[in-house]
Structure formats: C-alpha cells, structure tokens
Amino acid sequence: MNGWILAAAVELGGAGAAVLWGVTTGPPARRVIAQNLATSAVCPALLLLAQGYARPSYVDLALLLALLGPVGTLVFARLLAGDLHGRRASAWGLTWAAAGLGLAVVVALCVVAGPGRALVKLLVVGALLTCGNVIAARALSGGIQGVRGG
C-alpha cells in the first residue's frame, strides 16, 4: 500500500461516516445533502486510487462522476421540492470542505502528473467537481429559482 491508496482510504472512511450519518438520520433535505457529499467524496478518492494503482481509467470514472453527481443532486432537489420546501438545508460548511478537499487532491495530482493530457483532464475534473457541488448546494439551500422556492 502506498501513500495515495492510504490517502484514499482515509478520505473515504471519514467522508463515508459523514454520508452514512446524513443518510440514516434527519429529514429528506439532509439526505439529499448527504448524496451530494457522497459524490464529492468518491470523486477525489477515485483520483487518488488512479494515481496509487497507476490506472488512468479511474480518472475517466472520476470525470463522469464529477459531471453526473451534481446533476443527480439537482434532479433529487427538483423531485423532492415539495418535501424540501420550507426547510432550509444549510450545508455550506460541508460543501466548502468537500470542495477544498477535491481541489487539494486535484492540485496534488496536477503537480505529480506534469504537463500534458492528464493535467488537462485533472483540471476539468476539479472544475466540474467544485462548480457542480457549489451549484447543487445552492439549489438545495433555495438559491436557484424554481428548484426549491428560490
């Protein structure tokens, strides 16, 4: 086991506990936030595992997850708009912590990857992950018109 795999295991363990707690307790708003956090946790873990196992195909999975994860959160927010209406789901601390973790992983892997195609792919994953999760969190907190009374 190298450092990259250990970092992925630690990150998945900590985030997995937070996601499990969020999914099993609380109102639907907390459960949707936990689903968004799961996406934010698994994507950087896939990037770390790609480096640890030297499998570039894991980066493609992370790219797909960074693209579709926040979209899934927005779909859940739209479908559960009636249940979520009137309940403010404040998860800005979690959102920024997850975004910071994702950016830290992307920056570390960009330094290791060096210039080239892999660097561009990592930067795209980082941008999609950060922007998508911030937009999804804003939708859950009622900040986007038509999603949750925004």
Return the domain count.
1
- Which parts are unreliable, with pLDDT below 50 for 5 consecutive residues or more? none
Number of DSSP strands? 0
Summarize the helix and strand pattern as letters: HHHHHH
Helix share of residues? over 70%
Estimated structural class = mainly alpha
C-alpha-based Rg, rounded: 16 Å
Strand content: under 5%
Task: Write down the overall mean pLDDT.
Answer: 85
Terminal CA distance reads 47 Å
Largest sheet: none
Shape category: elongated
* Oligomeric state of the chains present here: single chain
Our count of helices gives 6
Fold and architecture overview:
The mean pLDDT is 85. Helices cover 81% and strands 0% of the residues. The chain contains 6 helices and no strands. The radius of gyration is 16 Å and the shape is elongated. The chain has 150 residues and is mainly α. Helix 5 (92-113) runs antiparallel to helix 6. It has one domain.
Task: Lay out the secondary structure.
Elements: H1 3-24, H2 28-53, H3 57-79, H4 81-84, H5 92-113, H6 117-140
Helix pairs in contact: 1-2, 2-3, 2-5, 2-6, 3-6, 5-6
What's this model, at a glance?
It is built from 6 helices and no strands. With 150 residues, it is mostly helical.
Features:
single chain, mainly alpha
